[in-house]
Design goal:
About 50% of the residues lie in helices and about 15% in strands. With about 450 residues, the protein is an alpha/beta fold. Among the domains are: about 160 residues, Rossmann fold; about 80 residues, no CATH class; about 60 residues. The strands form three sheets. Strands 3-2-1-4-5-6 form a six-stranded parallel β-sheet, sandwiched between helices. Strands 7, 8, 9 and 10 form a four-stranded antiparallel β-sheet that branches. α1 links the parallel β1 and β2. α1 crosses α17, α5 runs parallel beside α6 and α13 packs across α16. The chain is globular. Keywords: Cobalt, Glycosidase, Hydrolase, Iron, Manganese, Metal-binding, NAD, Nickel. GO terms for molecular function: hydrolase activity, hydrolyzing O-glycosyl compounds; metal ion binding; oxidoreductase activity, acting on the CH-OH group of donors, NAD or NADP as acceptor.
């Protein structure tokens, strides 16, 4: 079986390959093709993968190319993890937004919209090429903003594109650990959009154990989300929000922390990864990864007074395990349940059938099937519909090339507080990003 990785020179590709090396079952991935527009990054990651495979018999063969059509030819699965504009683009997204006093995070608020505006046209081109060159392939999307990009690609590929994210995986793992439950045996009632979801229940042997955690102040204060949001707020919600909701619930504090930081997350990662790619090796990759995980959402933790990340939370997110489980379920009909980004159908009644949502899904040889979940409470439905409205304007702007539609995308987002700010944001982003030249 052949897996093509788009963004194959990306820093986290060795996580995916490490998961593949551990899969010894029949029908496993035996060929990996890395594709990237940057040949030097491809060579660097290719060297790290060769070190990973050195003592592994029958390791999946790895090839690399800068030719997208060549990479897609014969693929059974396509893993998309591209970054249009690179980390320089991410740093610019953050800087421009913070100058206007709004959030510039890569998937949330103004930064996420800017990232989406330049990524959606590229993602649509990828989807069209997959449909033409590898029509039987399944696309697993990790390209951010993941829900938005998955929805864009689904307009071409339908249900053969499935979005994944490591945030719900990490949240479920942390909560299950606190409840003394096996995360592989628990049912997680989770619903929302990518980076905008809530864990509303954890069923173990048919019993919802989340109320027990919500009643325990000490336990709530002992893990990542409890430290970020505070026990009182979690009890008020009656749920555990995805960590990215800190940007919404504590927006002023988050923006202030980001503005006061010595450098933004994007600028930090750009400098860190430049050092790695300048002298790549498996050892330096491990060291860089450990530092990256330790500093994840550092500004938010500082704003919340949450302190350093717990040792047990430093394990890399787990998206590579989700990707592997998803491929196994489809390729081998090994039925499983995963929290994924898929078309809504009738799962969340506040959204239309084609809206991509993040919910539990049954997965089998026919793909991912969203499971019926309880309706979102009004406060959550309001956020979900407002953010989805902004995403839809991004998709419309990418299709039409309309600057006014792009302004509307910024202005409708709940974390952008003025139409005037929206107009200034787009003007500034257009100066920073040549990829936005299609807007007129």
């Amino acid at each position: 079986m052949k897996l093509t990785i788009l963004g194959g020179g990306g820093f986290r590709v060795p996580l995916v390959y490490r998961a593949l090396l551990g899969d010894r079952a029949e029908g496993r991935v035996t060929r990996v093709t890395l594709h990237d527009v940057d040949a030097e990054r491809l060579a660097a990651i290719g060297g790290v993968l060769a070190e990973q495979a050195r003592d592994v018999s029958d390791a999946p063969a790895v090839t690399a190319t800068t030719d997208l059509d060549e990479a897609l030819r014969g693929a059974d699965f396509v893993f998309s993890a591209i970054r249009v504009g690179g980390l320089a683009g991410r740093a610019a997204d953050e800087r421009v937004a913070l100058a206007e006093g709004v959030l510039g995070q890569e998937t949330v608020g103004a930064g996420g919209i800017a990232y989406g505006l330049r990524t959606v046209p590229v993602a649509l081109d990828v989807a069209r090429r997959v449909a033409r060159i590898a029509p039987d392939a399944w696309v697993i999307n990790f390209t951010n903003p993941a829900g938005l990009v998955t929805e864009a690609m689904s307009r071409v590929l339908g249900d053969r594109v499935i979005g994944i994210c490591d945030s719900p995986v990490g949240l479920g793992r942390r909560v299950a650990r606190l409840l003394g439950a096996d995360p592989d045996e628990a049912w997680f009632d989770y619903a929302g959009l990518n980076h905008l979801g809530w864990l509303r229940g954890v069923r173990v042997a048919g019993r919802d154990e989340l109320p027990r955690l919500l009643a325990d102040t000490e336990a709530l204060g002992s893990f990542e989300e409890g430290k970020l949001f505070g026990a009182d707020w979690l009890r008020s919600l009656g749920a555990i929000p995805n960590e990215y909701l800190h940007y919404y619930y504590f927006n002023r504090e988050a923006v202030r922390a980001y503005r006061e930081a010595a450098r933004t997350r994007g600028a930090y990662l750009r400098e860190q990864q430049a050092a790695f790619y300048g002298s790549p090796s498996l050892d330096s990759w491990h060291a860089t990864l450990a530092e990256r995980e330790a500093t994840y959402m550092a500004a938010n933790r500082e704003a919340a007074g949450a302190g350093a990340r717990a040792e047990e939370d430093l394990e890399p997110g787990g998206y590579e395990r989700v990707a592997l489980a998803l491929m196994r379920a489809i390729a081998r009909d090994e039925r499983t349940t995963l929290i994924l980004n898929v078309r809504n159908r009738a799962t969340l009644p506040v959204l239309d059938a084609d809206a991509v949502v993040e919910v539990p899904c049954f997965v089998d040889a026919n793909g991912a099937h969203p499971v019926s979940v309880a309706p979102l409470p009004l406060h959550a439905a309001g956020l979900v519909t407002a953010v989805k409205a902004a995403e839809r304007e991004v998709l419309a702007a990418a299709e039409s090339g309309s600057r006014e539609t792009a302004v509307k995308a910024f202005a409708l987002h709940p974390l952008v507080d003025s139409v005037s700010v929206a107009r200034r944001l787009l003007a500034a982003y257009a100066r920073e990003h040549p990829e936005l030249g299609h807007l007129a």
